[in-house]
Design goal:
Blueprint: H1 13-24, E1 27-28, H2 40-52, H3 64-78, E2 87-90, H4 93-104, E3 110-115, H5 121-127, E4 131-136, H6 146-152, E5 157-163, H7 175-188, E6 191-195, E7 221-226, H8 227-230, E8 239-242, H9 245-255, H10 264-276, H11 280-301, E9 305-306, E10 314-318, H12 328-339, E11 341-342, E12 344-345, E13 358-362, H13 367-385
Parallel strand pairs: 1-11, 3-4, 3-5, 5-6, 6-7
Antiparallel strand pairs: 2-8, 7-8, 9-10, 10-13, 12-13
Helix pairs in contact: 1-12, 2-10, 3-10, 4-5, 4-9, 11-13, 12-13
Length: about 375
Amino acid sequence: MVHPVFDNLPTTIFEEMSGLARELGAINLGQGFPDDAGPEPVRARAAEALMTGSNQYPPMRGLPELRRAVAEHYRLSQGLDLTPDEITVTSGATEALAAAFFSLISPGDEVVLFQPLYDAYLPLIRRAGGVPRLVRLTPPHWRFDRAMLEAAFTDRTRMVVLNSPLNPAGVVTPDEDLALLAQFCVAHDVIAVCDEVWEAVTFDGRRHRSLMDFPGMRERTVKIGSAGKMFGMTGWKVGFLCAAPPLTRALAAAHQFLTFTTPPNLQAAVAWGLEHYRDWFQTMPAGLQASRDRLAAGLTQAGFHVLPSAGTYFLNVDLRASGLTIGDREFCLKSVREHGVAAIPVSAFYADDPVIHIARLCFAKADATLDTAIQRLAGARKAMRS
């Protein structure tokens, strides 16, 4: 018999819209991946390591040089005092999330989550026996407050999951909100699992700050990063679990029975990139910020109401404020089928009481692709208003 958590679980909205884009030859601004190959020097290191290095099992916790490089990267970029022994390399951030949920949640534990949320959270948490407690964030600011946390946290709360920068909203959680959440975690003796895969993709001079950096959170935070997001190569699936030693022991124990390890040539290349290709962490966000501005300006000129994007690959349009009465899912289906542009309905990121008038678009694309998409979306808006 199929476990009830996975029985009849639908195909993800990302696969649905990307499948339609492939089938129809549409521009894919739905699924979040750049349309270039990624930084050539880092790819070259992976190729070299594949041909000249070991292709046998690397250490379960990850190559020592990568764990050292991750610790140093976070020291330089975020001021964190991690040691290599507090880092476990995983086969992507989703595997890191699974390891965290399976090792740290016991049946009946309550887990506070903020929606809109990554669609992997709920099935993994439920499979671990956790009980979700949802906090509903709404546009345009997508923020939580004390009253919302007081309603979500109980004596049975054992974990909170925070995604910042937040996909799909494109917001970077303000320091005052992080400080408030840290107070609740300490007061309720709660572990924070921080999905920070977009930490390197922030704009307008913003600097990512981890919840781990707040008072009382160093020993109770699991920080998750993604080399695929850092270097714009989403298929590499190299992730990081960062946590204090007692948590790391549990995380590594779960990891060893999930994927056990990650391709050694990719680990070696990521280590080299973190140590020797640091200019990337300035040039990459600057380039994406220019793409964000290009798409936002074009959509605004076309009559769309564009919401702010402070990080990630994404910006959102408010359909109601753009003069459209159509819901986000219907808008996205019409857009890809009739106008040749795939987008993602933000309602798909809610487990209940969804916001149904926001559509997400990925701007990590070439200028020509964005310009063509803008023209087509302008036509889509005109057609859907008539």
